[in-house]
């Protein structure tokens, strides 16, 4: 049985587009979930953040407007739980794409990380 691949992505994000192209060029058809319309839930993030091996702050899209609207000082002062709550409310605040395959979770698109996972 093939483990399904879910990719939380934003349609206007070139990095997300590149990830989808990489997956499809390797015969992998991901279920693409629009991250702005369906941001990750608290339950998902509670499982995915530890599975990713990244700290909560590494899940922030620090180059986006949502991050700038909050402001670095407020982010720096926030607890991990507060940041997780922000991520559940604003998909544009989440670094993307987020790839979920079983217990494996990758944040951002690095072809070498995708190769390790799939090849």
From TrEMBL:
<dbReference type="Pfam" id="PF03960">
    <property type="entry name" value="ArsC"/>
</dbReference>
<protein>
    <submittedName>
        <fullName>Spx/MgsR family RNA polymerase-binding regulatory protein</fullName>
    </submittedName>
</protein>
<dbReference type="InterPro" id="IPR036249">
    <property type="entry name" value="Thioredoxin-like_sf"/>
</dbReference>
<comment type="similarity">
    <text>Belongs to the ArsC family.</text>
</comment>
<dbReference type="InterPro" id="IPR006660">
    <property type="entry name" value="Arsenate_reductase-like"/>
</dbReference>
<dbReference type="InterPro" id="IPR006504">
    <property type="entry name" value="Tscrpt_reg_Spx/MgsR"/>
</dbReference>
């Amino acid at each position: 049985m093939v483990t399904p691949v879910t990719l939380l992505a934003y349609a206007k994000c070139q990095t997300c587009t590149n990830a989808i192209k990489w997956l499809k060029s390797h015969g992998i058809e991901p279920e693409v979930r629009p991250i702005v319309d369906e941001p990750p839930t608290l339950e998902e993030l509670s499982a995915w953040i530890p599975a990713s091996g990244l700290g909560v702050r590494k899940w922030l899209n620090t180059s986006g407007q949502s991050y700038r609207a909050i402001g670095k000082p407020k982010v720096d002062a926030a607890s991990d739980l507060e940041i997780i709550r922000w991520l559940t409310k604003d998909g544009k605040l989440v670094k993307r794409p987020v790839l979920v395959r079983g217990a494996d979770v990758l944040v951002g698109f690095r072809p070498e990380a995708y190769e390790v996972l799939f090849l």
